[in-house]
Amino acid sequence: MLTTDTVNELADRLEAAEAERTPMRHFTIDHPDMTVQDGYAVQARWVQKKKDRGAVMRGHKIGLTSKVMQEGAGIHEPDYGVLLDYMFYDAGSPIPMDRYIAPRVEVELCFQMSKALSGPNCTIFDVLDATEYVIPALEIIDTRFHRFDPVTNAPRKIMDTVADNAANGAVVIGGRPVRPMDIDLRWVSALLMCNETVIESGVAAAVLNHPANGIAWLARKLWQHGESLEAGEILLAGSFTRSVPVSAGEVYYCDYGPLGSISCRFA
Q1: 225 vs 29: CA distance, rounded Å
Q2: pLDDT tens sequence across 102-146
Q3: Is the pTM of this model over 0.90?
Q4: Which residue range(s) make up the domain with 247?
Q5: For position 77, which CATH number holds?
Q6: Considering its fold, how many domains does the chain have in total?
């Protein structure tokens, strides 16, 4: 376990890397015995620093939901992070590149909760019952670390990603909200276009066989730490496409078919 002083130091380093837009070496290089629990402790401290300066928590995100991503990270379950108010953009908004280091776009579904969720036995049915509506979302992920270490070329470890607030950057929400039982959420599909060219596509069942499964997993995970998902939270269920690197001047448009579309521009 990392000491309290070390947790504070690592949270400060994340804050500095984000502010200076300068990626840093992985924490696990200097702290090879760092655990996933240590990573969440650093995440919590970094998020608290932001709250102390006025940021407001809006919800959670779930990452590493696909088997391919999990195998690449050497884990067997997803991770999660916290969504703060300043991360949200309206559909069609320009997104300033100078806020990020190396942003990437992912295609997801967003769950708006009407009831609290908690407990070790939370199921997909509890999630569907507690969801007010589901709406399309684009997540902009960004990492405060080098994706690959510049010296060893080693990839980040899950402990680094967890500490980095699950690579949270921004969220764009749009399209048409639907009640969770009105459609089969497994078959929600999307085409992601960059400058009018389709570059990614996917189906929501790629997220743990059903996107609500990730929300149930998160409720069970938070329960282990004495926390719960609260009514009113916005929850990103996980990407069902690969993440796509973005550049200034690019326009992204995601067509969710019957659920409408989202666009954004990187300025």
Answers
A1: 27
A2: 999 999 999 999 999 999 999 999 999 999 999 999 999 999 999
A3: yes
A4: 4-266
A5: 3.90.850.10
A6: 1
